[in-house]
């Protein structure tokens, strides 16, 4: 693989505005009528959120990630897809480069809601 070129430089204040948090994927459910989307019920410690992610065609069994911690961008506006609302974005690795994505995960268990950065 040849890595893609690095994107343009951004100021630190832009990076500081992105809120990335650790959450535990409590449940994975199908989204009726969608061939790609699943609903992740994610525990962020003080609350849970519904997060829609296109994992159906990327994994033989999307439920294999239940109970796993992962990173999520939590300060994006809610996004409606297939009649459902996604309240965060799963932060995964590989999709932009055409690979089967893998979760971006903490190296050891950490409290849900912990911030990256």
Based on CA atoms alone, the radius of gyration comes out at 15 Å
Strand percentage lies at 25-35%
> SSE order in H/E notation?
HEEEEEEEEE
Q: Describe the main β-sheet briefly.
A: 5 strands, antiparallel
Helix content: under 10%
**Number of helical elements:** 1
Low-confidence regions:
none
**Broad CATH class:** Mainly Beta
Strand order of the largest sheet: 3-2-1-4-7
The 3D shape can be described as: globular
Q: Tally the structural domains.
A: 1
Give a description of the structure.
- The protein has 117 residues and is mainly beta.
- It has a single domain (12-94), classed as Beta Barrel (OB fold (Dihydrolipoamide Acetyltransferase, E2P)).
- Helices cover 4% and strands 34% of the residues.
- The strands form three sheets. The chain has a five-stranded antiparallel sheet, with no helix packed on it. The chain has a two-stranded antiparallel ribbon with strand order 5-6. A two-stranded antiparallel sheet has the order 8-9.
- A hairpin with an 8-residue loop joins strand 8 (92-93) and strand 9 (102-103).
- The radius of gyration is 15 Å and the shape is globular.
- The two termini are 28 Å apart.
- The mean pLDDT is 95.
């Amino acid at each position: 693989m040849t890595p893609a070129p690095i994107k343009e430089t951004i100021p630190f204040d832009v990076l500081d505005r992105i809120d990335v948090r650790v959450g535990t994927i409590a449940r994975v459910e199908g989204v009726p009528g969608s061939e790609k989307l699943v609903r992740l019920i994610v525990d962020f410690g003080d609350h849970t959120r519904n997060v829609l992610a296109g994992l159906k065609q990327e994994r033989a069994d999307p439920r294999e990630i239940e109970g796993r911690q992962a990173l999520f961008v939590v300060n994006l506006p809610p996004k409606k897809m297939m009649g459902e609302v996604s309240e965060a974005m799963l932060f995964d690795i590989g999709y932009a480069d055409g690979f089967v994505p893998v979760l971006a995960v903490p190296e050891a268990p950490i409290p849900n809601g912990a911030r990256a950065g």
